[in-house]
Design goal:
This protein is about 55% helix and about 0% strand. It has a domain of about 170 residues: Heme oxygenase-like (Heme Oxygenase, Chain A, Up-down Bundle), CATH 1.20.910.10. The protein is mostly helical.
Length: about 260
């Protein structure tokens, strides 16, 4: 399948935009916890993470999020089909894992860099890191299916370049991607992983979908959620809105990765 090109880091053209922050806050006043991982937990959400969650949910289709999804399904985009109708292959799934590794490595390197300690250091070793797990899974897929090693050359590489550029120029926009990638993978991503496992891996669950560090997934999500709220408290309203408005681009770039397996 031809791979759609990701937008250049500095470009805003032809990128799906999230609803305006004011509209998102008004139209999702009754937002509830959901199963797609964007900061959901028991009870009413608090802080800026809830604003990010509401905007993210508005960009789901009704099939993906019956209560809060607002986006119309686009039949030309395979990743918007119900997961039950996906037709993954070992080759495509390996490509997805390799391209995903580029994205997670980029985020992990940004938050671990000495020069970024003040801005992003609190997110280093947060427990949600996926690079080590992905390396193990990539090796497993290569060995099990006799597939040749490869490097990220498509959607993941370009997403990684976008993340590095945003980290240097606009922390609120980088944080938008950080939140959406990690939190979506923790729930919706796990559902996709289970389905792919059933179809091509005889039920084997890959390391990509296991969290063992720092108390496990729930503790890590709660900790990162608090750190995100603390970070946003220091932002102006304009910076918060810039973060929210980046959600559409995050969905676009993540969708290009999912097309590799859908």
């Amino acid at each position: 399948m031809p791979l759609a090109r990701a937008a250049a880091p500095s470009s805003r053209a032809h990128v799906a935009r999230a609803p305006s922050p004011s509209r998102a806050r008004a139209s999702h006043a009754r937002a509830r916890a959901h199963g797609h991982g964007h900061g959901a937990s028991m009870g009413q959400q608090k802080g800026f993470v809830e604003e990010m969650r509401r905007v993210a949910m508005s960009l789901h289709t009704r099939e993906q999020a019956p209560r809060e999804g607002e986006k119309k399904t686009d039949a030309t985009k395979s990743e918007q089909k119900p997961v039950a109708r996906w037709t993954p292959t070992a080759e495509g799934y390996l490509n997805f894992l390799v391209e995903s590794l580029a994205v997670y490595e980029a985020m992990e390197r940004v938050v671990a860099a000495n020069e970024n300690e003040k801005t992003y250091g609190k997110f280093n070793n947060c427990g949600l890191e996926r690079s080590e797990a992905l390396r193990k899974d990539i090796k497993y897929m290569e060995e099990r299916f006799g597939l040749a090693p490869r490097e990220a050359t498509g959607a993941g590489k370009e997403y990684a370049e976008t993340l590095k550029a945003l980290a240097a120029t606009s922390p609120p926009e980088f944080i938008c991607h950080f939140y959406n990638v990690y939190f979506a993978h923790s729930a919706g991503g796990r559902m996709i992983g289970r389905k792919v496992s059933e179809l091509i891996l005889d039920g084997k669950e890959l390391e990509f979908y296991e969290w063992r560090a720092n108390g496990g997934l729930d503790e890590s999500l709660a900790r990162v959620r608090n750190l995100l709220n603390e970070t946003a408290e220091a932002w102006s309203r304009e910076e918060k809105d810039r973060c929210l408005e980046e959600t559409g681009k995050s969905f676009q770039l993540s969708g290009q990765l999912l097309r590799l397996i859908a």
